[in-house]
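Record format v2
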Amino acid sequence: MPLLSRAAGLFFNLFEPLFRIAQRRLGIGRLGWLFVAPNLIVFGLFTFLPIAINLVYATTGGVNLMPFERPYTGGENFGILFECRNYFDIQTCRKDVFWRAIFNTAQFSLIQVVLMVGLSLLTALVLNRKIIGRGFWRGVFFYPVLLSPVVVALIWKWLLQSQGVFNAALVAVGASPVDWLTNASWAFFWTVFVSIWAHMGFYTLILLAGLQAIPKDMYEAAEMDGASPWRTLRRITLPLLMPNLIVVLVLAMIRAVQIFDEVFVLTGGGPGSATTFIVQFIYQTGFAEQIHLYGLAAAASLVLALGLVVLTLLQLRLTRASDAGQRAR
Amino acid sequence: MIRFLTRTRGRGRMDWTDWLSYGYLMIGLFTMFAPVLWLVMSSFKSESAISQFPPTFLPYTQKLVQVAGHDKPLPLFLTRDETGELRPMAQVRRIGIMATMVDPQNPEQQVRVNINDRTPINALHFAFSNYTEIFGKFRFGLYLWNSVFITVVATLLTLLINSMAAFALSKYRFKGQKTVFLLIIATLMIPPTIILVPVFLVINTVGLLNSLWGVILPAIATPTGVFLLRQYMLTIPDELLEAARMDHASEWRIYWKIILPLSAPALAVLAIFSVMWRWNDFLLPLIVLSRSEFFTLQLALNAFQGELNTQWHYLLAMTVITLIPITLVFAFLQKYITTGIASAGVK
Amino acid sequence: MVHRILNHPLRALVAALVVLPAAVHSAEIRVMCYQDGVECDVIAEQAKRFEASNAGTKIIIDVVPYRTIVEQLPVQLAAGQGPDIARVTDLGGLSKYYLDISPHVKDKAYWEANFGATLPWLRPSPNDTGFYGFMSQLTMTGPYVNKTLFEQAKVPMPGPKATWDEWVEAARKVAKANQLPAAMAWDRSGHRFAGPAISYGAKIFDAKGGLVLDQGYKTAVSKFVGWHKDGAMLKEVWAGTGGSSYADSIGEFKNARVAMVLSGSWQINRLQKDIGNAFDWVAVPNPCGPAACSGIPGGAAWVALKTSKAPKEVGMFLDFMAQEAQYAEFTAKTNNIPAHAGLAKKGVKYPGATPQAQAALGVFSSGVANLAPAAYQFQGYRFNRAIMLPTVTRVTQAIVGEMSVDEAVTKIAADMADAVKQATK
């Protein structure tokens, strides 16, 4: 420990004179830029620059990796993505897997977010009660969050394989084994289940923290006024929890749309294209298929980014509106 | 039903709603832990036992017995012999559907038995060799060091620059502040997978390919970190800073001596997340590191999946090993999580 | 005495200059290798011997997962980075990065004589005459059959010239008698699929040398999908995943869940180790279709890469590996079929192989004679991935019912055309 504080002290002393000089020249107000600078540099170099490069990829064709050796094609890649003979039938689209992926992702996000936030809320409410060993139970639900997505998928793939535990249990009770991962509906179900299993604890914690911040006297006052539990939930708990709920909903939605690792290892996007989601499509187009269609992948990723921004803004507007509506009542 | 959800009961006695709550928690415990427990138990199975169907919870392998007149131990089967009795017999060889078996006590007499008339006799056997062989399989120590180095350094750097950025965004007013904040949050929308190739190009141009720093630096700025820390720092009273400024403390000193210590719970949360992300990180090391001396544990884990082959027993053992450090960190820093997030009090 | 030299700076400098050049000439060669069995381990041993007789050259073998070779190596090479030597399977696709080592090999005639048939696969253009590496082994696709299950069901195994239909029928009976989940499974791979496709009359290439999907290919697709629908084929292998990811059927074969699989000669090592004594397995010649009884040749190749900074040493090391003694050692220890014409003629002894493995190797080796010309052309074609990957994706979609066979074939053709168009831009 003393070694650590010595090292920390050294670090502090190293930068202090630099900051003092900067402070004198920039003034306190503009010093903010200096503090934010390292963060911005890293973001700029490793996030924004790649996005810009993606833009170059999206507007060029060919299979060359170096962006400036690729022939300029303008909006051709976007054209390919959106080309359909009949806009109501995905099959007639040139990139039908892309559209299937979008549809799958939309379906998945909606179902998974609603279920997961609901379950997290329920769990948080249960954990908020006076129970023994809350820390332990909290840890139990949070534990899967620590596992890497690959590990999560491997565990469940193991359990669900046609010769795995689930089927063994079924056979033992005399039922016939089920195609857990090779039946389209079941495969979809399991992607929802496994992703909820792996991430629920994180959101439960956020909601629990919010619940525990609600002062107890609120409840006591309501009880004294003879309010029913349902009313307490609707009028006191939920409104006070709303900020946390909004954060949870937005984060969960963003993560759901971006899901990739777990599903890729669990089902590979199958059977067929039943669990192929949009990030997997991008990954396959640009990376896994040996004829790398960087341009198409970049175009698809820009469509995804745009879609996400729109979706998030929509979500924020809706939840703020309902929140304001509630408060006004 | 709603009653039990909204009220905390502290009357000292358990009623049906408490039982329901504990029931729910027990189901949660089972659902969350059973799969991981299965993983751990399976990691002790030998390679052939793993692909057995139906799978057993505890690791079993077939018993072997040393029979006089044979150099190698022979596998033991429960066999139905000519008289219809069930006896343990050792198998000498199997050709097609007929097996030649001997009674271990009476090795001279050989009996021919149809393979359908015998079942293997299994014994509990923990294949610790799965774990020990891994250490010899490749340079486990080196990969462990790489993973630890990356995780520790990256976490320290992450805490540093994200707290600096959060400080600037919470305690300062400067032009363009809101834009910067929105920009940072917007990066949440970009899943790392889709910018993998451009990131590789940038890392290559900067010359950080095949270097641990190439894995550390690109991800030390995290929007979640900035967001979390900023929320927390907003609750630190401005009067403290004003007082320090009046005492002619430099901003750096304020940051270092006041803000950081007061943000300890939030920093602890970010530290846990950072350790978790870095330890489990796979994609970034995959594209940056192709020289084996720089591999991390997660990369090495993947090496057990060859083109045409997956060595499950090693894979499972490695997975369990990589789980241990993260579990320890979590157990150690667990209590900070709720306080950290709670006090961040989302406004 | 030493301190007298060091005391005099000028003398020390001269001494250093004398010593230095000998130490300066040192080259480091990095080999990026993946293995299914022990290929990289065997090469590591050979590398040590090479280092011993070539002081100053250091060889480092990086064992990586196959995924790295497929996904990362092309990206690295495109960015100007990469190892000196790599073991690759996309022979044509990466050919623009290969380094010509013909100036550095000792005996060009030796190379031509023994690797002549497969050297063209590595050449970037048809008129090229350079040496860019050599095949580490020759692989053949072909079926494995669970003899024990056939015996238990008392069904005779069809003969060497039997058709796919006959084999499917026989396997079906065996599956029924033994209560197996399915009769047969094929690896989830367009490369594996091409063999039966060619046997069913697919020409793969049109008159101009471009890819074409003709009636023969369609017949193969339709038969394959049909066998899934009526339960002859095990669903898990093709329908168990999505996209074009690879999945093999050997796991199912090992667990005796199917009577027959279509895989390839590289599995012999694994089968020998994992099945052991559990049941008898044999390799059989590729079943016939109306046009041929063909499999597809293949294999991984050791290639020299342009990113190397030590081309001479790379050439020397590859030359060393290609010599008969080393190649025979590699082939014997990895239980592969040699791509070395001389060894193929002489025959290789496989001391570590069980009688079953030896017999299987024999079947595959003699199958080389039955390879259709289209099969060779297919393997050597630069953009064969353009037809292999969409086949896997679309046929799977047809199997799970997302589209009809006709639609699937149309889509394969469209995806193929798209890919080739981008690749030739």
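The beta strands of chain C are 27-33, 57-63, 85-88, 133-135, 139-146, 184-186, 260-264, 281-283, 297-298, 301-304.
DSSP finds 19 helices and ten strands in chain C.
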